[in-house]
Amino acid sequence: MSEKKSQSQTFRLTPGGRLRGRFRVPGDKSVSHRSIMLGSLAEGETRISGFLEGADALATLAAFRAMGVKISGPDAGRVRIEGVGMRGLQAPTGALDLGNSGTSMRLLCGLLAGQSFDSILTGDTSLSSRPMRRVTEPLATMGALIHATEAGTAPLLVHGGQSLHGIRYDMPVASAQVKSCLLLAGLYAAGETWVREPAPTRDHTERMLEGFGYPVLRDGGWVGVEGGHGLQATDIDVPGDISSAAFFIVGACIAEDSEVILEHVGINPTRTGVLDILSLMGADIEIRNRREVGGEPVADLRVKSSHLRGIRIPERLVPLAIDEFPVLFVAAACASGTTILTGAEELRVKESDRIAVMADGLRTLGIDAEPTPDGMVINGGRLQGGAVQSLGDHRIAMAFSMAALRASGDIDIGDCNNVSTSFPDFPRLARESGLGIHVEQSPE
Ligand code: S3P
């Protein structure tokens, strides 16, 4: 029997270059996950276009197939789901492996807590070290029975057959994953389930529930659902992911003589913190052709080379740009003056500790970057070449790729396989738009 050897990808970047072109980045990861979940539980056939064919969203898709849902595709971003209705999921025969995907695990944990069968949720090394008590504890107060490790991490054993009841939950962290988890559990709970966030986070779950005809309750800062209603199948056009666009937005800002037009990017106001932060730094970004697709606002973004300056990032923007800080740190490294980020301790529990890993890499590249418990202080400077680690974090790998546009020497980035979780075509798109990027495979 031949043993399958896994390959580790290194991105090798030559310095300099400019970014040019008009293109569309892949579909939004958050919307893609939710389209599979709600489409599976709906009555009737849901047709999705623009679905992100990245490993994370595919893990969600595979989990629903394993629970008996007939899903065809993805084929060039098109997926068809024969919804099984709110009570139509079947017990999976094995554990549901969610790979690197925190969104899959946290949202599924809520949804599965309300099913009649048991399920086991597992993930890779990174996902297995991420905090799950933030969902298992409030779910327990709803009557859910979930076993985690002693450290409060996956694997999670979700016991079905429990009767859930609604709660009112004041969330201690601003997390769309926690909010969504509880709302999905709330679909199966007796009475109403309400959550309040300490600061607004992405609202794709609420929008999509309404798109599937499920009533969403709002009262001041609270959002809720009443259990027991149904979902009606619908068509979903997934916008381009602003979190993927962010790499090219920053790249075009920091590189000389650059101009890109990114088409059909989702600009949901709970996601546009990156545009606000870059605008405060002096970025030349124009939002064109605003329109709405399936309940989500989209636009084309034109970005040109800009003289960025350091700023103190307003804390209210942190949850609205939570996935974009790796590349925003690169923008800060290329800005004149000091950028100060505070109130972002959540970055320490993402796919990697993004404060530590980014500070290490920036320092390797000659930048004065001081990590703090909840953020970073970065003095803009001259990027030099060097070898940095992404520690398997997709967004860190792509952020350091963009740094090469302003570096004086080659940059090698280790452990880049997980770029395929959110942006499978990144190396090709980056090369076509002007980055000197080469992917090297070596046995692990
Ligand atoms: C996500 C929410 C965010 C984000 C993640 C996707 C979602 O996580 O970082 O990439 O789809 O709900 P938190 O809600 O934990 O901040």
Task: Describe what is shown at a glance.
With 444 residues, the protein is an alpha+beta fold.
What key attributes describe this structure?
single chain, 444 residues, UDP-n-acetylglucosamine1-carboxyvinyl-transferase, Chain, 2 domains, 4-stranded mixed β-sheet, 23 strands, 29% helix, 27% strand, disordered N terminus, Enolpyruvate_Tfrase_sf, transferase
Alpha carbon gyration radius: 21 Å
β-strand amount: 25-35%
Major beta sheet, strand line-up: 21-22-1-23
Mean of residue pLDDT values: 97
What is the level 1 CATH name of the largest domain? Alpha Beta
Number of strands: 23
Distance between the termini: 19 Å
The assigned CATH architecture of the largest domain is Alpha-beta prism
| Helical amount | 25-40%
- The name of the CATH topology of the largest domain is UDP-n-acetylglucosamine1-carboxyvinyl-transferase, Chain
Domain Enolpyruvate transferase: 14-427
Subunit structure: Monomer.
Active site: 323
Binding site for 3-phosphoshikimate: 29-30, 34, 175, 177, 323, 350
